[in-house]
Design a protein that fits this description.
Elements (H helix, E strand, L loop, with lengths): L2 E8 L5 H9 L4 E6 L6 E6 L3 H12 L4 E8 L4
Antiparallel strand pairs: 1-3, 1-4, 2-3
Length: 77
């Protein structure tokens, strides 16, 4: 099962709580949290396959206030 962490930068002009609520409502997002550091939010996502993974990432990028994402796919060993 594909999984990834998505590092998310948010626009300062939006209410972070609203963006966080929207992120948490996306199918495939198992957890999303605001963080302190170079990124504003980190989301953990899981998907049945790579197509669903890309759909989840697209949905995250379409959330109001999301300015940039950086996907870190989890390596299975």
């Amino acid at each position: 099962m594909p999984a990834a962490y998505i590092l998310i930068d948010l626009n300062m002009s939006v209410d972070f709580a609203d963006s966080l609520r929207d992120l948490r409502g996306i199918d495939g997002v198992k957890r999303a949290d605001l963080v302190v550091g170079p990124d504003d939010c980190i989301a953990y996502i899981e998907a049945a396959d790579s197509t669903q993974m890309m759909n989840t990432i697209r949905a995250i990028r379409n959330v109001a206030g999301v300015s940039k994402t950086d996907t870190r796919s989890i390596a299975e060993v």
